[in-house]
C-alpha cells in the first residue's frame, strides 16, 4: 500500500540507467515523502512501511522520532503501530538524527482517489504509454526541510539533476531565499546540482519557498530551464499555545441548569494547523475558590467551552463565599499528550444575581413624630434583601398603599442605603388630626422570578404623631382690599380686619399692630383691628403704584412665646380733582425780523386722572394798550400755539397764560411765558442785552399816566 512521491522509487529501471553516473550518497532519508492509503485500522506491531536513512558515514547512534506517539520506527527502519489505531490523522512525520546529520520524512495518509490525483499532478501522465515523462531535461524534485535544524551549516538538503550532460554546463538557482529577500538562505553547487541550506529555517516565518533552477553552457547561454523547485519547511513543535484575546470574563445566572455554557476559551498555536503540533486540548488546572465544590465547571477539551457541572441548588449566589470564580485554563498541543507544549490563561466567571429574594422590612411597625406645619423627611424605613446590591434585584421601590388621602406624605428610596425616606410634603394640622397611620409596601425594581412572591414582611405600618405648635393668627381674607377716595378726612375708617388663631384649643387673645406703612397714613386699633387714617391719602404720592397703596399689619396671639401672623391691605384710591394743570414750556425765542410768527406750541399736563384732566382750556390774560401783540390758538385737547400778530423789537416779554382742566369743579393755573425777541444775523441768534421786560415797563408807564390824568381832570 505504500508508494512514493520520488520518481526514483516509481521507475527505478528508467531513471537509474539514465543518471547512474550522477548518483552519489546524499545524507538523510533516501525517500522523504510517502503516500499510504488509509486502512480501516493500523494493526499493533504490523509494519506500515520501511524508511531508509543514510548519513553516508555509517549511521552511528541513529535515532528516530515519530510525531504521533502511537507509532515508532524500529532500528531497521520499519514504521509500526504501538497499538491498534483507527485514526492517525492526515500525516506522520519521522525525524532521524545521527552524530553527523538529521533529516525529516513525511508520510501522507490519503484515500485511493487522492493517491491517483497526486500522481497525475506530479508527473503529468501523457498518452497511453503508462510511463511518466519529464517535460524538461532538469529533474527538480520537491525538497522538505525540518525547521530549527542545528548547525553545522551549510548542509545538503537535495539535488537537482540534468539529463543534458553538456560539457561545462552549470546550474543556477534563483528566487526568494536565494537572490531575493531573504537572500542567501539556499545555494546550489553549479557543477553537481547539490542544493544546500545555510541556516536554520522558521516555518512560522516562511513555510514555502518557490525557487527556479536553470542550466547554462560555458558561454552563459541558458540551455534548459527555468524549472520550478519547491522547498517546504516541515513544522516542528516549537510554539506554545497562546491565549491572545484576554481578559476572559464570563457570566452565568445563579440557579442555571447543569451544563449551562458560560464562555469559550480559544488559544492560538503558530505551528502547522494540519499537524498535531497545533492540535490543542484544554484543561482546568485550578479553581478558586473551591467551595461549595472544587469542580464547579468543566471545559470541553476540544472546543474550549466552559460549562457548569454542579446542580442549580449549589449555584446559589447568596450562599457562596464569593460570586466570582477564577479558573486557570491550560491549552496543550500535540493533542494534549505529555510531550505537548502548554500555555495558560485565567478565566474569571461571575455568578450573576437573579431576583430570588424579596425585600423585607426589618420591623412590622415604625414610629415617627412631626411638628405641625413642618415638611421634610420624618423617618427612614429599613429593609433587608439578600440579592446583589446596586442591582435591580436589590434596589427597593416603596409605595404608600393606605392612609394618605390628602397626599400629605411621599416616600422615596435612598440610593445609597436602599432605605425608604418617608417625608411630609404638605404641612400637617394638629387641630385637624393629631395621628396618622400609613401602610407601606416595598418591591424590587426587577420582577421576582416566577416561583418567588412577596410576603407579609414586604409591608409595614408607620404610626405618625403630630405635635401641636403655637401657630400665628391668620387674617381673613389675605390680602384685604378696599377702595377709598383720596383726600378723605383724617380719622376716617378704612377697614376693620379679622384675624383668627388656628390654635382653637388654646383660647388665646389677639392684638393688632402696624407692620409696614410706607407713607405713614394709617393706624390700627390693637384690640378690634379697625384701621383709620392719620393723614390725607394722596393718589399722586410716590408710595402709590397703579392707584393702589399697600400696607402690612400684624396679628399677635398671647402664646408663650407669642406667634405672629401678617396681613396685607391694598387700598385702591379714587381720583379727586386736586391738582391744577401745568404748562410747558415756559420759555420761547423768536427773531425780531421773523417771517413765521408762530412762536411756540404749548402743552398742558395734569397729575389727576380723566375726567379731571383734558380737554384743557387755554386763554391769554387781557392785553393792555391800543394794539394786540399776540394771540393763542388751541390745537387739540392738550396743546395750543402762541402766534405774534406783528414783529416786535428786541426785548424780553412776559405773556400771562391761563390753563383750565375739565374737573368738577375745574382748576385753573396761570403761568407766564417768557418770550425773548432776538436779533438774527447770518443764521445767528443774539438774545443778549435785550431791553428789560418791555411789556412790563409799558404797563407801568400806562398805569402812571392813568393816575396822572385822574389827578388833573
UniProtKB/TrEMBL annotation:
Keywords: Calcium, Cell adhesion, Cell membrane, Cleavage on pair of basic residues, Cytoplasm, Glycoprotein, GPI-anchor, Lipoprotein, Membrane, Metal-binding, Repeat, Signal. It holds the Pfam family Cadherin_pro. Gene3D superfamilies: Cadherins. Its main location: membrane. It is found in: Cell membrane; Cytoplasm. GO terms for cellular component: adherens junction; catenin complex; cell surface; cytoplasm; side of membrane. It is a lipid-anchor; GPI-anchor. CDD domains: Cadherin_repeat. Residues 1-20 form the signal peptide. GO terms for molecular function: beta-catenin binding; cadherin binding; calcium ion binding. Residues 170-243, 244-361, 362-475, 476-583, 582-693 form the Cadherin domain. One of its GO terms (biological process) is cell migration. By contrast to classical cadherins, homodimerization in trans is not mediated by cadherin EC1 domain strand-swapping, but instead through a homophilic adhesive interface which joins two elongated EC1-EC2 domains through a region near their Ca2+-binding sites to form a tetrahedral, X-like shape. Cadherins are calcium-dependent cell adhesion proteins. They preferentially interact with themselves in a homophilic manner in connecting cells; cadherins may thus contribute to the sorting of heterogeneous cell types. May act as a negative regulator of neural cell growth. PANTHER family: CADHERIN-13, CADHERIN-23. This is Cadherin-13. It comes from Casuarius casuarius (Southern cassowary).
Amino acid at each position: 500500500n505504500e508508494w512514493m512521491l520520488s520518481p526514483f522509487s516509481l521507475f527505478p529501471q528508467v531513471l537509474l540507467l539514465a543518471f547512474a553516473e550522477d548518483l552519489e550518497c546524499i545524507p538523510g532519508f533516501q525517500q522523504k515523502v510517502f503516500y499510504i492509503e488509509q486502512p480501516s485500522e493500523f494493526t499493533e506491531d504490523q509494519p506500515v512501511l520501511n524508511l531508509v536513512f543514510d548519513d553516508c558515514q555509517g549511521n552511528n547512534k541513529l535515532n528516530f522520532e515519530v510525531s504521533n506517539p502511537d507509532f515508532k520506527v524500529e532500528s531497521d527502519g520499519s514504521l509500526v503501530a504501538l497499538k491498534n489505531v483507527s485514526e492517525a490523522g492526515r500525516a506522520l512525520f519521522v525525524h532521524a538524527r545521527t552524530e553527523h546529520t538529521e533529516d525529516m520524512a513525511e508520510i501522507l495518509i490519503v484515500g485511493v482517489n487522492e493517491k491517483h490525483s497526486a500522481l497525475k499532478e506530479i508527473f503529468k501522465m501523457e498518452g497511453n504509454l503508462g510511463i511518466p515523462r519529464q517535460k524538461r531535461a532538469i529533474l527538480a524534485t520537491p525538497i522538505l526541510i525540518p525547521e530549527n535544524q542545528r548547525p553545522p551549516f551549510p548542509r545538503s538538503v537535495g539535488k537537482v539533476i540534468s539529463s543534458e550532460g553538456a560539457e561545462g554546463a552549470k546550474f543556477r538557482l534563483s528566487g526568494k531565499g536565494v537572490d531575493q529577500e531573504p537572500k542567501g538562505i539556499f545555494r546550489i553547487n553549479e557543477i553537481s546540482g547539490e542544493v544546500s541550506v545555510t541556516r536554520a529555517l522558521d516555518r512560522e516565518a516562511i513555510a514555502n519557498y518557490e525557487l527556479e533552477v536553470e542550466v547554462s553552457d560555458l558561454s552563459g547561454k541558458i540551455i534548459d530551464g527555468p524549472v520550478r523547485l519547491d522547498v517546504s519547511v516541515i513544522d516542528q513543535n516549537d510554539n506554545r499555545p497562546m491565549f491572545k484575546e484576554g481578559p476572559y470574563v464570563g457570566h452565568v445566572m445563579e440557579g442555571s441548569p447543569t451544563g449551562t455554557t458560560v464562555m469559550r476559551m480559544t488559544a492560538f498555536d503558530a505551528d502547522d494547523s494540519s499537524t498535531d503540533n497545533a492540535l490543542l486540548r484544554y484543561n482546568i488546572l485550578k479553581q478558586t475558590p473551591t467551595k461549595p465544590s472544587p469542580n464547579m465547571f468543566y471545559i470541553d477539551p476540544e472546543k474550549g467551552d466552559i460549562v457548569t457541572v454542579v446542580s442549580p441548588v449549589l449555584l446559589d449566589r447568596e450562599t457562596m463565599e464569593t460570586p466570582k470564580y477564577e479558573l486557570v485554563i491550560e491549552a496543550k498541543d500535540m493533542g494534549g499528550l505529555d510531550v505537548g507544549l502548554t500555555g495558560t490563561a485565567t478565566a474569571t466567571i461571575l455568578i450573576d444575581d437573579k431576583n430570588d429574594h424579596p425585600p423585607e422590612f426589618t420591623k412590622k411597625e415604625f414610629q415617627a413624630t412631626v411638628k405641625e406645619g413642618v415638611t421634610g423627611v420624618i423617618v427612614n424605613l429599613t429593609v433587608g434583601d439578600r440579592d446583589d446590591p446596586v442591582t435591580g434585584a436589590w434596589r427597593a421601590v416603596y409605595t404608600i398603599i393606605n392612609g394618605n388621602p390628602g397626599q400629605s406624605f411621599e416616600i422615596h428610596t435612598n440610593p445609597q442605603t436602599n432605605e425608604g425616606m418617608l417625608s411630609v410634603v404638605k404641612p400637617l394640622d394638629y387641630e385637624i388630626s393629631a395621628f396618622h397611620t400609613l401602610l407601606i409596601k416595598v418591591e424590587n425594581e426587577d420582577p421576582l422570578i416566577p416561583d418567588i412572591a412577596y410576603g407579609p414582611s414586604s409591608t409595614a405600618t408607620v404610626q405618625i404623631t403630630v405635635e401641636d405648635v403655637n401657630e400665628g393668627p391668620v387674617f381673613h381674607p389675605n390680602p384685604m382690599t378696599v377702595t377709598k377716595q383720596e383726600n378723605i378726612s383724617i380719622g376716617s375708617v378704612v377697614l376693620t380686619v379679622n384675624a383668627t388663631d388656628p390654635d382653637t384649643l388654646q383660647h388665646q387673645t389677639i392684638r393688632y399692630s402696624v407692620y409696614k406703612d410706607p407713607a405713614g397714613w394709617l393706624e390700627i386699633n390693637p384690640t378690634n383691628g379697625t384701621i383709620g387714617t392719620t393723614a390725607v391719602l394722596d393718589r399722586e404720592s410716590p408710595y402709590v403704584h397703579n392707584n393702589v397703596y399697600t400696607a402690612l399689619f400684624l396679628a399677635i396671639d398671647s402664646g408663650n412665646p407669642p406667634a405672629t401672623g401678617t396681613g396685607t391691605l391694598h387700598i385702591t384710591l379714587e381720583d379727586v380733582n386736586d391738582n391744577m394743570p401745568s404748562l410747558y414750556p415756559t420759555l420761547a425765542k423768536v427773531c425780531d425780523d421773523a417771517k413765521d410768527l408762530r412762536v411756540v406750541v404749548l402743552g398742558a399736563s395734569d397729575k389727576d386722572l380723566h375726567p379731571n384732566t383734558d380737554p384743557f382750556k387755554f386763554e391769554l390774560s387781557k392785553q393792555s394798550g391800543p394794539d394786540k401783540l399776540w394771540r393763542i390758538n388751541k390745537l387739540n385737547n392738550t396743546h395750543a400755539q402762541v402766534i405774534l400778530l406783528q414783529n416786535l423789537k428786541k426785548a424780553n416779554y412776559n405773556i400771562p397764560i391761563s390753563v383750565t382742566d375739565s374737573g368738577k369743579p375745574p382748576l385753573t393755573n396761570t403761568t407766564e411765558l417768557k418770550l425773548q425777541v432776538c436779533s438774527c444775523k447770518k443764521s445767528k441768534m443774539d438774545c443778549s442785552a435785550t431791553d428789560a421786560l418791555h411789556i412790563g415797563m409799558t404797563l407801568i408807564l400806562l398805569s402812571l399816566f392813568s393816575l396822572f390824568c385822574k389827578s388833573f381832570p
